[in-house]
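Lab channel / #folding
Pinned by the channel admin:
"Please post every new chain as: sequence first, then the structure tokens as a reply. Keep commentary short and put observations after the output so the thread stays searchable."

First post following the new format, from NK:
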Amino acid sequence: MSSTRREALGAAVAGATGLLAAPAVAPAAAPTAPATIVAARSVTVRRGVAIAASRDGRTLVVAHDRRRTIALIGRGGRADRLVDVGGQPVEVAVSPDGRRIAVSTAAWDQPGLVMVDPVAARTLRRADVGPAPGAATFTTGRRARLVVVGGEQEGTLHVLDADGTAVLARHELGLVPRGLAVTADGRAAWVALAAQDEVVRIDLRSGRLTRRLATPPRPERLALAPDGRRLLLTHAGPDADRVSEIDLRRGTVRRLPAGPLPAAVGYTRRGRRLAVVGGAGQVVVLGPRPRRRAVGGAPRGLAVVGERAFTVDHLTGAVHRVTA
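Reply from TO:
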């Protein structure tokens, strides 16, 4: 029985006992006037679950938790327009030129990949990229491609054209792919395999896994340094308070203290290491003496543009900007 029901029952029993003990001639209690209930103003909160930015920072996109919408964020930091993507958004990515947005939608709500036109604020098409699609990103260069991982136990990587009109290749990865980062030349990608405690490098043309590196348990979010020599990783688990940095030349792993529940990682253009710490409401510039930028709330996701970073509050949907 809930505490509320126990209190209500206790009050009822106490009232009945009092009536039995009262004299027979006791007057009846005067009727109580009904309480006046004033309705509070209804506030719609769109909780942030992921954020992405174009290379020039002019296009910001936020995916909403428990909704089927994404928000297109203007220069003033407000949500200019909402786009219904027809399913629960999981991850978002913006093409380098800012003319296309890719949205993966959840396994439990219309799984797939949705392409959005940010100028017209409308969906263009939906592509089938297998069950449980997750992280998505665009490659750069003349022949840009769109890369998506997912599938959980049937871990896969799909390569599509930049408009999302055609699936060009499907490659098997491993168990439970999570974080994704493509190399600067667009020929390969690094993927975190959460159920195998490792990161793998995959050739995007052949689908061949060219490298495997062991990691601490349950790797999640992943970022590749601008020089291609290091990887940053978050790890799942309620006690996670560190991120891992892998030296790709040596294959060594360093554990860097960040704070409770790191939710995302990234590198600035100059190679500074960033971590979003959801349990402390901070964006941390990692180093021998970490610099902490308080943003409050429960930040989720990270979009890095040059030396600037953007994150979104999972509780309020507010977008925060910090300078590394």
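NK: The first helix runs from residue 3 to 21.
TO: also worth noting, The helical segments are 3-21.
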